[in-house]
Amino acid sequence: MTAPSARSGRHPRLLVAAMAFAGVVTAVMQTLVVPLLPTFIADLHTTHETVSWVVTASLIAGAVSTPVLGRLGDMYGRREVMVGALVCLMAGSLVGALSSHVLALVVSRAFQGVALAVVPLGIGILRDVLPPERAASSSALMSTTMGVGAAVGVPLTSLIARYADWHAVFWMSGGLGLLALLLVLALVPRTETRPGGRFDAPGTLGLVVALVCFLVAVSRGNTWGWTSPAVLGLFAASLAVGAVWAYHETCVPDPIVQLRSMANPAVLLTNLSTLLIGFSFFANSLVTSQLVQEPVETGYGLGLSVLAGGLCMLPASVTMLLFSPVAARIAAARGPKLPVVCGIVLMVVGYMLRLFTSENLVLIIVGAAIVGIGTAFPYSTLPALLMQHVPRAQTGAANGVNVLMRAVGQAVCSAVVAAVLAGMTVEVGGTTAPAFEAYLTTFFLAGCVAVGALLVVLPVRDRGSGIQKNPQQS
C-alpha cells in the first residue's frame, strides 16, 4: 500500500478542524429549508405538495451521491472529489439565492444535497493521513457532524429568516461552503492511496435509478397514497432495477459498490443498524420544534415562535458535539461496539422520557438532548466498527454506503412521521393540528426502531479498539 502524502502530519489538529467544519456545513443542508417551507408557499405562490420537493430533492441527491462519490474518491483521490462536492454546494446555494421560482429551488437543493458525500470522504481522508491512535477519535468527530449539522440547521435558518429575507439563508450557505472549500484546499493533503480502476457507469446508472425510484416512493407515499399505482409502480421498479444492478455488480471487476464485501454479515448488520439509527435520530429533529410551536388551544402545545422552536434543538446539537470525543475514547479503550450499544440504549431512554414529559418545555429539551447524546455514540463509532470488516481500498465506498443507509433511514422516518401527524389530528379554531397522541406515537415508534437497531448490532463482532488494519486490507 502506498504511504500517505508527506504533508499528512504537518497540521493534524487543523486538518481535523477543517474536516469537521466541512462535515457540519454539508450536514446543515439536510434541514436548511425546513423552517422556510411555509414562507416558500406564500412567496412563490405554490402548493404544499410542490414545495415539499425542495426537501426531497436534497435527500435524493445526497443518497445517490454518497456511494458514487465515495467510489470516485477511492479511485481518483478523496480530496479532489471532496472539492468537487463543495463546489456543487456553492453552486446550489448561488442558484437558490438568485431564484424566484420553486423549480429553481428544487434544482438548487439537489446540488446542495450532493455535498452530503463530504462526510464519508472525510472519514476516508482521516483514516489515510492520521496515525491510528488519532484516526479513531477524528473519524468519530467527522461522523458525528452529520447529526450536529442536521440539528443546527433548523435554529440557524430560523434565526436568519427572522431578521432577513429567505434568500439570505442561501447566501449564508454559499458563504459557509466557500469557507469550507478554502479550508480543505489549504489544510487537507493529497494522498497517494489510489487503487485506480475503471468507473462502473452502468452500475452507477442502475444505482441511481433504483435509489431515486425508492426514495421518491417513500417521500411521496403519504401524498399520493401508499397503494396508488404511482407509488406501487415506483417500488416495483426499484426492486426490479435493484435486482439487475446487484447481479451486475457481482460480475464486473471494478463495481461501484463492492457487494461481496458489503454482503459480509458484520458489514450488512452494521449498515442495517445505521439505517434504523438514522430513522430514530431524525424523528427527534423533525418533531421537537413543531411540538413546542403548536397552539396552546390544542391542550398540549406551548405556542412558541419558529425561532424559539428551533432553539429547542440547540442543546441536542451541542451535547452531540461534546460527547463525540467521549465515545471515541471509549472505543479506543474497549472497542467501538460498546459505545454503539450504550448510545442506542440512551436513545431508547430518551424516547421513553419523551413519552411522559412532552408537555413541559424543560423536559422536552432534556429528552431531546438525551436522544442527541445517544445518537452521538453510534454516529461517532459506527464507522470504526464498519472499517474493521472492509479493506482499506474500499474505505470511501463503504462509508458512502453507510451514509446512504442513514439517508434512507431519514427518508423513511420523514414519510412515516408525516403520515402519523396527518392521520391523527384535532380541530383547533377552524384549523387542523396534529393530536397529542400523534407525537406520542412518533416517540414510541422511534424508540421501538432504536430497540431494533440494538438487536441488529449485538451479533456484530468487535475486533478490537480504534480503527485498525484488518486482515482484508492490502
Please give a structural write-up.
This protein has 474 residues and is mainly alpha-helical. 75% of the residues lie in helices and 2% in strands. The protein is built from 19 helices and 2 strands. It has a two-stranded antiparallel sheet. Strand 1 (425-428) and strand 2 form a beta hairpin. It starts with 11 loop residues before the first helix and ends in a 17-residue tail after the last helix. The model is unreliable at 1-9 and 466-474 (pLDDT under 50).
User: Which strand-content bin applies to the residues?
Assistant: under 5%
Q: What is the radius of gyration computed over CA atoms, rounded to a whole number of angstroms?
A: 21 Å
N-C termini distance: 6 Å
Please give the share of residues in helix: over 70%
- Helix tally equals 19
Query: Can you tell me the residue ranges where pLDDT is under 50 for at least 5 consecutive residues?
Result: 1-9, 466-474
Shape field: globular
Total beta strand runs = 2
Element-by-element helix/strand order: HHHHHHHHHHHHHHHHHHEEH
Structural category is mainly alpha
Short characterization:
The chain has 19 helices and 2 strands.
Descriptors:
75% helix; disordered N terminus; two-stranded antiparallel sheet; 19 helices; globular; disordered C terminus; mainly alpha; 474 residues; 2% strand
